User: Which sequence fits this backbone?
């Protein structure tokens, strides 16, 4: 735990990106080292935003993106399953303001063919803490960095829809995303009247390390649409569960 305690004063954070004279908006994306999160960071850069992205390890693809855009990409380290690291990130970002906070970090169980009765307790806990508990801890910790005209978003999944589950399968992952959705509904209920839009995003089944090679969508089929939907939700208070086309997903 020594490295966690020292997080705010060691090399776990890159040099902060200074606000540009043209006041580019800032995105804080949790989980941007690869896959959907990395693609979101790149897409927001194209849209003229600056990006603060988090990773769990050194030498990720986000570091390569930062090298290409040294004045616009900042990297921080956090493992969302470790409260002390979330607290260190919050301390590091104190005084900052983000037009959008988007929590992308997530995982799946190693064998998604297992039923809920077959999965080990340890694997169940790992997935649920990463996908359901971690995101809300992060949002609760960082929410005050998002101004009233900002947006809070979380990467969910169509598999988190209870009413759409007619075929079963992927039970642990489905359950973790359904729990995430429920906790976000509780968060929104506790923040009734909050002017900030809150978005649970279902990006579709995408070919990433998590989605696997059989997924029908390429990253470029999903992420540009995801980003456009998020931008279109700015200024619309309340919680919505949306897909990449901007359509409402059934709870």
Assistant:
């Amino acid at each position: 735990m020594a490295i966690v305690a020292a997080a705010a004063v060691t090399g776990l954070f890159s040099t902060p990106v200074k606000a540009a004279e043209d006041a580019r908006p800032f995105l804080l994306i949790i989980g941007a080292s690869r896959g959907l999160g990395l693609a979101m960071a790149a897409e927001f850069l194209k849209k003229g935003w600056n990006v603060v992205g988090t990773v769990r390890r050194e030498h990720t693809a986000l570091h390569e993106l930062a090298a290409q855009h040294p004045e616009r990409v900042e990297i921080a380290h956090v493992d969302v399953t470790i409260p002390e690291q979330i607290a260190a990130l919050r301390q590091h970002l104190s005084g900052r303001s983000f037009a959008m906070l988007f929590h992308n970090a997530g995982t799946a169980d190693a064998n998604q063919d297992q039923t809920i009765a077959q999965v080990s307790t340890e694997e169940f806990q790992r997935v649920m803490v990463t996908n359901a508990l971690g995101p809300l801890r992060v949002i609760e910790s960082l929410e005050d960095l998002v101004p009233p005209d900002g947006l809070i978003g979380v990467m969910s999944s169509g598999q988190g829809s209870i009413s759409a589950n007619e075929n079963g399968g992927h039970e642990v992952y489905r359950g973790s995303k359904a729990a995430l959705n429920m906790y976000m509904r509780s968060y929104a209920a506790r923040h009734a009247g909050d002017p900030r839009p809150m978005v649970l995003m279902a990006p579709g089944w995408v070919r990433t390390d998590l989605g696997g090679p059989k997924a029908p969508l390429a990253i470029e089929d999903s992420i540009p649409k995801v980003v456009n939907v998020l931008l279109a939700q700015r200024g619309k208070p309340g919680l919505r569960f949306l897909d990449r086309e901007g359509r409402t997903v059934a709870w």
Notes: The chain has seven helices and seven strands. Confidence is low (pLDDT under 50) at residues 1-10. Strands lie at 26-30, 50-55, 73-77, 100-103, 151-155, 197-202, 238-243. The first strand starts at residue 26 and ends at 30.
